[in-house]
Amino acid sequence: MGKGDYYEFKWFVGIVEDETTESRVRVRIFGVHPFDELGVAGGPASLAVSGGDLPWANLVYPIDSTTPNHDLQPSDWVYGFFADGDSCQQPVVVGRIARGDGSTGASFAGGTQSSGGGGSPNNNGSDPGAGGLSTGGAPPVQFNSQKYYSNIPGGSNQQKAFNLFATFFEEKGASEAQAKSLAAGVVASLIAESGSNLNPGSLGDTNTSSYAWGVAQWRLNRRAGLFQMCGHKSTNFDCQLNFAITELENRNHGVKSENSHRGVLSKIMQKNTPYDAAYVWTTDYEIPADRFSKAKSRGSTAQKIYDRLAPNYERATIGSPTQQIASSNAQ
User: Hey, is 290 helix, strand or coil?
Assistant: First the structure.
């Protein structure tokens, strides 16, 4: 690369993809990295650039910053420049664009900024969703006898969540020891989201239109998917846990989820400790504000959760194919 390729900055606008670290993010840059999600936009699919092929973007921090942690989330719009000019291989992000909407980059539509779960529980506020939520009139999703866990053992919500996720991870190929470690990490993060009793009626971020609901504090389109699968404002604990699994597996639950979780399951399956599992679940599934520092905090409690819940592990089982979630479990 010649010296003329440097210091001739090429500016860009893009969206943050799923993969991020504490100091870098992958950005899909409009006009450079074609986007195709099931043929929806930016096609043709043959020209699309997969998320794993996107270059890592470095981030600009204030000179007095001591910890290089960012708060960017998947689907955030950002802007920056290519340090290598027209080569377009060394992107540098310098800021976030407020109110960017539409992750396919169709236009600057000016909606609310995209985000997923990770709302802060606050059950004392008024519910901005009291008037009901439109989910397009689609019918409720029917239980699949091969997918839905309806018999979840456990004497507490924490133990039930632990048993369900440990069973799920085992069925995905983890050893029992690894599966229990991963489940402890998930429960540690869920406790931070909805309290020590994993309250399925937890209401968070009540001062915003994107209020959070449930065990994992789902928001926006993810909350819409939860309500469509389990019923509007359902407090059915088992159904909420199963909804999390449908997101991990990218299964259709009635609406397109705001955040794609296609990479979370593969990432967490590569971990072996409760700490690492809590870290991945927080940064890639919950995605709360200041997620990296919260991931460390949640990870620090995960081993204690493992020590308490792992000895009582019982496998969950699949339920009846004739049940319907929204009709039988909505409250």
Answer: coil
Q: Which residues contact 309 (CB under 8 A, 6 or more apart)?
A: 158, 159, 162, 183, 184, 187
Angle, vertex CA 270, rays to CA 92 and CA 45, nearest 5: 55
Number of domains observed in the structure of the chain = 2
Q: What is the pLDDT of residues 98-151, one digit of tens each?
A: 644 444 443 333 333 333 455 544 433 333 343 333 333 333 344 343 467 777
Per-residue tokens: 172: 């995905």
Distance CA 299, CA 186 (A): 9
Q: What angle do CA 285, 19, 47 make, to 5 degrees?
A: 120
Name the token pair of 186. Answer: 């998930």
> For residue 264, is it within any domain?
yes
In this structure, what token pair is assigned to residue 331? 């409250």
Please report the beta strands in the chain, taking only residues with DSSP state E, as ranges in sequence order: 10-20, 24-29, 56-59, 77-82, 91-96, 149-151, 203-204, 212-213, 317-318
Give me the domain span that covers residue 82.
Answer: 3-96
* Residue 289: other Cβ atoms inside 10 A: 12
Same structural domain for residues 161 and 81?
Answer: no
The answer to whether 29 touches 17, Cβ cutoff 8 Å, is: no
168 and 34 assigned to the same domain? no
CA distance 286 to 117: 5
Q: What is the pLDDT of residues 231-268, one digit of tens each?
A: 888 899 998 998 898 888 876 554 444 445 557 888 99
Instruction: Please tell me whether residues 181 and 264 are part of one structural domain.
Output: yes
- The number of beta carbons lying within 10 Å of the beta carbon of residue 19 is 16
